[in-house]
Amino acid sequence: MSFGSIESGLIRETPEVVFASMPEGDSIYRAARLLEDRLVGEEVVSVGGSHRAVAGYGRRLVGRTINRVENRGKHLLIHFSGDWTARSHLKMTGSWNVYRPGQKWNKEEGAARFVVTTPGSVAVCFAAPDVDIKPTPVIDEQIAHLGPDLTADEFDEKDALRRVEASQAPTVADLLLDQSVMAGVGNVFKSEIAFLLGIDPAADPSNLTSADREAIVLEARRLLLVNRELSRRVTTGDRRRPYYVYGRNRQGCRRCRARIRSGNLGDPARVTYWCSACQKRP
Ligand SMILES: [Zn+2]
């Protein structure tokens, strides 16, 4: 059995590489599969970590069996016997690693927010600001607002489209990040999807055509589904040049050579990249 880590999108056999992009639905999908592979069927020997949720309810997990690991958008859920669930959200800083018992960790112990130890594995969630441990119905309530998960085997396109149509998001950038519309798009995919659709991320979604709305759903679904299987996120199809616009401020557009622009867009404002030649306001 091999052991690995997930660092914002990368599974490695040896958990030592820190990868510089942010966790989005694709990386959480892979983290969930890694944890599922190592933990399901195992009994919890101990629970640790510095997050206050661990101090609150961590000991309630000891002795329970891990039944299932699930990703819902950017949330990772570990389901335990007796209807308890641990939910983590990595935000921009967190990562999940799985070690053998006794294996050296690749980060300081103090950075461990939530640790689940079983006889065969030590699963460590580093630096995640958002962890909760509660009876499953309470956790279900916390994530009930989420739209369809873009990485799930089953994806309800019609439901996603209805949510796009009903959204009050002020910009396309906000719409793409709204987890209650579709769950799993983060800041990287946001810029990439808007580029691929040729839509200005600052555009008002109420001006979109129904074809535009449908294209948003289909493109988000396509990109997340492709990337859930990759060890490193790629939107261009070329690993050497993984992104069209993200992180490429002032560099040449891969399609038209105009300079890529960046700015803080949306509410709350997040850095966004786009090509003003290729991307238009409808
Ligand atoms: Zn361009």
How many β-strand stretches? 12
**Overall number of domains:** 2
Major beta-sheet overview: 6 strands, antiparallel
**Poorly predicted spans:** 7-21
What structural category characterises the helix and strand content?
alpha+beta
Give me the CATH architecture of the largest domain, please.
Answer: Alpha-Beta Barrel
State the strand order across the main sheet: 2-1-7-9-8-3
Number of helices: 7
Percent in strands: 15-25%
Query: Could you name the CATH homologous superfamily of the largest domain?
Result: MutM-like, N-terminal
The percent of residues in helical segments reads: 25-40%
Q: Could you tell me how far the N terminus lies from the C terminus, measured between alpha carbons in angstroms? A: 52 Å
| Structure ligands | zinc ion
Instruction: Give the averaged pLDDT, no decimals.
Output: 91
Coarse shape:
elongated
Report the CATH topology name of the largest domain: N-terminal domain of MutM-like DNA repair proteins
CATH class value of the largest domain: Alpha Beta
List key phrases describing it:
N-terminal domain of MutM-like DNA repair proteins, 26% helix, 282 residues, six-stranded antiparallel β-sheet, Helicase, Ruva Protein, domain 3, 12 strands, elongated, 2 domains, four-stranded antiparallel β-sheet, binds zinc ion, alpha+beta
Explain what the structure shows:
The chain is of the alpha+beta class and 282 residues long. The chain has two domains: 5-142, Alpha-Beta Barrel (N-terminal domain of MutM-like DNA repair proteins), CATH 3.20.190; 157-274, Helicase, Ruva Protein, domain 3 (Orthogonal Bundle), CATH 1.10.8.50. The protein has seven helices and twelve strands. It has helices at 25-39, 52-57, 136-142, 157-166, 172-177, 187-197, 210-228, and strands spanning 5-6, 11-12, 46-48, 66-72, 75-80, 84-89, 95-99, 112-117, 122-126, 130-135, 261-265, 270-274. A six-stranded antiparallel beta sheet has the order 2-1-7-9-8-3, with helices on one face. A four-stranded antiparallel beta sheet has the order 4-5-6-10. It has a two-stranded antiparallel ribbon with strand order 11-12. A hairpin with a 4-residue loop joins strand 8 and strand 9. Helix 1 runs parallel beside helix 7 (210-228). Mean pLDDT is 91; it is low at 7-21. Zinc ion is lined by residues 253, 255-256, 258, 275, 277-278.
